[in-house]
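Hello forum,

I keep getting stuck at the same step: I have a sequence, I want structure tokens, and every attempt I make locally crashes halfway through. Rather than fight my setup again tonight, could one of you with a working pipeline run this one for me? It's a single chain of 463 residues.
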Amino acid sequence: MSAEEHNANHYENEILGILRSRKSPKVIRDELSDYHANDIAEVLPELSARERQMLYRLLSDDDLAGVFEHTDDAVTYLSELDPKKAAQTLEAMEPDTAVDILKTCQGQQKQAWIELMSEDARNSLHMLATYSEDQIGSRMTTNFVTLHSNQTIKEAMNSIVAQAAENDNITSIYVLDEKDVYFGELDLKDLIIAREGQKLEDLIATAYPYVYADELIDDCLSRIQDYSEESIPVLSNDNHILGVITASDVAQVVDDEMGEDYAKLGGLSAEEDLNEPLKKSVQKRLPWLILLLGLGMIVSSVVSLFEAVVAQLTVVMIFQSLILDMSGNVGTQSLAVTIRVLMDEKLTGKEKAHLVWKECRVGFTNGLFLGLQAFGGIGVYIMAAKHLAVASAFAISGCIGISLVVAMLISSLVGTVIPLFFKQIGVDPAVASGPLITTVTDMVGVVTYYGLAWLFLIEMFHM
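Reply #2:
Ran it on my machine without issues. Output:
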């Protein structure tokens, strides 16, 4: 057990002990305040319905919101609350999280909770819900504070104090001009140490990064990551600030994007979860499998072109899977590296050419190393197991070794060039999935292996 797992179990036992003690509600509440919301969320499945009800009564709406934000079953637990308390808890959550939770609710239940929220909360959630999941606006939070550029230092401090009661994301302060257009960013520390007579405009960073709410996540994610700020403002098309993307939002977006790309590498159209219905899982996988079936039939047709080679030299069939497996593995490795590199939107043509050249060299070097091993190892095996003459055994193993070098070189090239091509024509390079690359490299391996076997073993050595 790792130290992290040990600590998690330790906290879980402590929290369970506190909740199941006979202490007064105030004492239990005070003791629970020493634990992170995520630690409390971890024990929810271990509690009985009655124990959870007790916990709900102990925690404030803000604390309960923090706990539910760290669980994947928020809807289940919210359903155990009184509708009014559930609405208040949702209202206390980060708006983007609340929107995600409401999207998974049943219509009647969702409508009841929304109707019990304040008008400001409803407007905020409605605004976030208007953006599609692939737009950065769907990930922003409306938890931020603003100032106006014409305020004095004293007025600015008073305004921050007043806004901090409703918004706790105050490290970065966003400044608007007299028309409420985004002007720049102000660090809270600079405002605190500023002298009263100093102009607020002198403290504002007007070159601070920002994004527009309708920008696609894929288009602006690397730009957001480059700045490594605690939060970045999200603007409307008329440059009014709508919300902010925080560091935790970015981490979640990166995790989601990696999960989506990983799913696509597996030939899926999107991520699956454990509870997903059979029909939906089949719909995600079947289109790719149909495409791959067609490509597989083409590969089989290519194999049929070499029937004469197989009929004349049946021993070569034994090592076909070795060539295909190695070429497929190399192609998938190059694909993974290429997709990772393509996350950088600023990649130049020269850098792309360098990537292709590098992957080809890696594929060739690995192929050369494995080819030499195959030449010696398989040659000895054929002599011992098939009782062929030394010359014949090593002629076959030599053909296999050369095939490995050529197939791995070409597969590295294919695994790099295909996603680069997709990116160039505006298609998500992750669509060049593992199964697709494997099928293409299978074709490369088949043509390479049987082609060389026909050329060297039959035409040149007349075996």
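Residues 32 and 274 are 31 Å apart (CA to CA). If your local run keeps crashing, start a new thread with the error log.
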